[in-house]
Amino acid sequence: MKGYVFHGPGQSAWEEVPDPAVEDATDAIVRVDAVTVCGTDLHILKGDLPEVRPGTVLGHEAVGEVVEAGGDVRTVRPGDRVLVSCISACGRCRWCRTSMYGQCRGGGGWILGHLIDGTQAEYVRVPYADLSVHALPGALDGKDAVLLADIFPTSYEVGVLNGRVRPGDVVVVVGAGPIGLAAIATARLFAPERIVAVDLAAARLDAAHRLGADAVADAGESPEQLIADLTDGLGADVVIEAVGVPESFELCARTVRPGGHVANIGVHGRPATLHLEDLWSRNVTITTGLVDTYSTPLLLRMAAAGRLPTAQLVTHTFPLKQMEEAYDVFARAADTGALKVVLGEPQHDVVAVRPADGEDVGSHA
């Protein structure tokens, strides 16, 4: 079979790799029908995650069909159409027993495309299949469902739920890439008074409007003033960081109100300054997190019912064999307008399915 292989910083290729096989009785082998590229994959290609070994097949999000299951797998069987979660869970360790699957110490957590071969291939071995794949509702299109492998549970759990969004809140989302847009969409489920999106790119701010933001602000033009004007100078109840750079985190800390929440989603590669000299007396809660994907079954049901705007985030589709071209389009999102690129079969030509909406600035895991 073929897969997209990391060979070291700046080196990768779509090439022949060994077929995966069941190694443990809890494994499943899934034929990949749809897969996407994450901003974290770009971090790996840049060399930002040195634990990823050369020779690893990348990718941690997929939809496909189970073709083989180990003897201990009980929840799926060959022929089942499934979502492959970005997080694998042993189900037995201390953290899994409290639904903190992202922190699994039994051989799970974020391992696909990180510590073991991932999903950007024709087939993938999924450890701990009972908790790490989810049967798909029949009405849910694979191109839409693949967004529930990572970005929607990440935005919902690490952003909206950790931030404790409540009815009547003013919510600010800093970063309007796919993660930020999914945070806007899922924050709306809690009936906030107002959602404000902050980004540098006009196309991404337009996308935020379409996904439900009530107001938008250019990050380069004093968004603090707009937020102050909209809140009578109090600041936002919840500020969601969906970029992963020091400037965006510090903006979040400046715009949250006393007693408010800053929920960090972005993957940070550089230190950010925590101004405790300003924050110590303001009763502010700051949360961080790696997605656990405990919400995936709920989100699948909501997507099947048409309650999540998954299709609006897919801007480009490709056949699997054009993985290298898909990476190039995604990496140059400022020029190409890519939000999420989805690869799958059967397809023949590249199709831009929606207007340019900007790059993924808040990718996670």
From TrEMBL:
Signal peptide region: none
InterPro entries: ADH-like_C (IPR013149), ADH-like_N (IPR013154), ADH_Zn_CS (IPR002328), ER (IPR020843), GroES-like_sf (IPR011032), NAD(P)-bd_dom_sf (IPR036291)
The protein's required cofactors: Zn(2+)
Keywords for the protein's UniProt record, in alphabetical order: Metal-binding, Oxidoreductase, Zinc
Enoyl reductase (ER) domain boundaries: 8-343
One Pfam family hit: ADH_N
UniProt family annotation: Belongs to the zinc-containing alcohol dehydrogenase family.
Protein name as it appears in the record: Alcohol dehydrogenase catalytic domain-containing protein
